[in-house]
Amino acid sequence: MIKIGIVILNYLAYQTTIDTVSSFDLQDKEGFEVFYVIVDNCSPNESYEKLKKAYRGRKDIAVVRTGNNLGFANGNNFGYKQLLLHMKPDFTIISNDDILLPQQGLYKWIVQCSREYKFAVLGPDVYSVSGKFHQSPLENHSRDIHECRKEYNELRKKYIKCLVKKFLKISGYQGTPVWKNDAYDKFTGSMTLHGSFQVFSNIYFRKYSQPYDTTTFLYMEEDILKLRCDRHNLKMIYSPDYQVHHLQAIATNMINKTNYDKELFRRKHLIHSFRSYMALLKKLG
Fold first, then answer.
1. pLDDT tens by residue, 17-47
2. Taking a C-beta distance cutoff of 8 angstroms, is the pair 105, 249 a contact?
3. What predicted TM-score, i.e. pTM, was given to this entire model?
4. In this structure, are residues 120 and 200 in contact, taking their beta carbons and an 8 Å threshold?
5. Spelled out in words, what is the top-level CATH class assigned to the domain 2-140+182-248?
6. How many CB atoms lie under 10 A from the CB of residue 177?
7. Backbone angles phi and psi of 18, in degrees to 5
């Protein structure tokens, strides 16, 4: 029996999380033992109570709550630690709370990729339903620290410009960014995997005790994960043979009511995460 652990981090959007779990529940589990940990990241609404009630009596689901909002990386790290209290998984899926699975065969796909590629981290084709584009794989950031500093400074300038435009009530911001992706239909072992859905094998956890670096709150976790894997020659595999649908930015939209608020939120946390990325880059030499 192959053991699959699933960590789903909820913030505010409990109904979307319930829909995500329902989508997982439809997957064929023959030959697999599946256990879910749903982490409510200290939502300031009734999320925790709603989720506890929804899964009361489910022995394959643990609903837990953090003491404060830990952000993406540490919220999922918290969930992984909780998972280990219930099972020793062969594979661990870290999924956003706004993911739907339109096709069968998820667990068999994971096992097949493990047998063929001995991956440490695996990612599927991630299709943004709202943006109507393929989000994974991502282009890697430059490994040159000078290029990183340049991009960091550009981020700071854009944040200030956005702040000024909001204050002056200047229109022009178009909403959530969409990027061109010519690589989504090609297998690769050299690019960064989108963070909304990632599969970790125990090969990864032999080097690292938890999925993500602890120094970010939101954004760039996948870029730092790529640095980690490169450091130890751990295989990060993208396979388009399985696709997930990403509803995208549900909780962010609930927090931030205007497009400028959303962009300020995104750029603020990107700046912080970029500092963490550059610090790790320096550390790795």
1. 999 999 999 999 999 999 999 999 999 999 9
2. no
3. 0.90
4. yes
5. alpha beta
6. 8
7. -60, -40
